[in-house]
Amino acid sequence: MTSDNIDLIIEALLFASPEPLTQQKVNIIFENEPPNLEAVTHRLSQQYFDQGNAIEIQNIAGGFQLRTKPEYDNYVRRLLNKTGQLHLSQAALESLSIVAYKQPISRADIEAIRGVDCVGVLKTLLKKSLVKIKGRDEGPGRPLLYTTTDEFLGAFGLNRLSELPKLKEVTELLEEQPALTDQINAFK
Fold first, then answer.
1. What is the pTM of this model?
2. Own/partner pairs for 85-92, CB < 8 Å, 24+ apart?
3. Tens-of-pLDDT digits for all 188 residues of the chain?
4. CATH assignment of 3-80, given 1.10.1200.10, 1.10.10.10, 3.90.550.10, 1.20.1730.10?
């Protein structure tokens, strides 16, 4: 099999895959001598860039995915007649932020930071597959522990949690908006 054929096969897999394509999946598909997914996607990305294509390959949630360039997103949304955006309430965003920065974390710890009950919010985040139950804490009552998911990474265009902005960076950005500073301080 030539390099060009492999590139075309990987391109077809990227197009057809509903979730990010991983090296593990490529290894299963190519039984003998699987190609290096990262190298192939790098070549394809360069080709798309050189040709000025409207799509690009992004490293998302530990894999690779074809995505529309941001400048064409509005047109695609119109075609699909969707907003294409994840809609979360303020409470859900606050709770999701707490989980993202403090994971693994129990419901009681989330409630202690937010100061209000979050059972319903956690159910919503679980239903949207943005958080998952990681296990149980060793403390009294052995409460459930929550962490973010690969769907969370994909929804926010992140490859790994380390790409989240540092709380110090967020605080510096929001210093001009004093009303939001109190909310940020709750995370510290």
1. 0.56
2. 86/128, 86/155, 88/124, 88/128, 89/121, 89/124, 91/116, 91/118, 91/121, 92/121, 92/124, 92/125
3. 676 689 999 999 999 888 899 999 999 998 788 999 999 999 999 999 999 999 999 998 889 999 989 898 878 877 766 655 667 888 899 999 999 999 999 999 999 999 899 999 999 999 989 999 999 998 888 999 999 999 898 888 888 898 888 877 777 777 766 555 555 455 54
4. 1.10.10.10
